[in-house]
Design goal:
Number of domains: 1
Order of helices and strands: EHHHEEEHHHEE
Distance between the termini: 30 Å
Number of helices: 6
Helix content: 40-55%
Structural class: alpha+beta
Radius of gyration: 19 Å
Strand content: 15-25%
Largest sheet: 4 strands, antiparallel
Shape: elongated
Strand order of the largest sheet: 1-6-5-4
Length: 175
């Protein structure tokens, strides 16, 4: 006879789903263009000379992913990296199972604060126009995380958060 296993089955009620779709990406693209125009105006430099400064934007995604995995390792949660890593607003990072709201908030806060601090530290070592693009790009690329984090404050602590393919879902368990 096999040993008995103790299993608990939870059902979830969806409270809210936050997704970052095509409209969100177009908004980020618009903000990136406006950022280039603002930096151009501030530095009195033609925009076409500043297009090369966009080369500092791809490492921001890598920084988000590494900071998320660092937080997951410290908090001893099992992270998951999905295949849509390069086109995801969360850079393909998430947890395998739903996590408590406090874990979600702390993880997102670590990623947002850490990436901003790393960008500010790099600002000292790179040319001024690249630094402005890095800081502005960091804020623009962190926008989906920031909005989802703000949306999480509408929910109470027994809520669970599940990372989905294009966003996060706020769930409430029945037991």
């Amino acid at each position: 006879m096999r040993g008995q296993t103790h299993q608990t089955v939870y059902s979830y009620k969806l409270l809210q789903r936050f997704r970052w779709g095509l409209t969100g990406y177009l908004f980020q693209l618009l903000l990136t263009g406006l950022m280039l125009i603002a930096v151009s105006w501030f530095l009195q430099t033609p925009v076409n000379r500043l297009v090369v400064t966009l080369a500092v934007l791809p490492p921001i995604g890598l920084i988000h992913l590494l900071l998320f995995r660092f937080y997951a390792a410290i908090s001893q949660h099992k992270p998951r990296t999905t295949a849509d890593m390069l086109v995801s607003a969360w850079w393909g990072a998430g947890f395998r199972l739903p996590v408590p709201l406090s874990v979600y908030r702390t993880g997102e806060s670590v990623v947002l604060t850490g990436s901003l601090l790393l960008s500010a530290a790099a600002f000292v070592w790179i040319p001024f126009e690249y630094g402005l693009t890095l800081l502005g790009g960091n804020l623009i690329l962190a926008f989906p995380r920031l909005l989802a984090l703000a949306a999480s404050f509408r929910h109470v602590p027994p809520c669970q958060v599940r990372y989905e393919k294009k966003g996060v879902a706020f769930l409430l368990t029945d037991g």
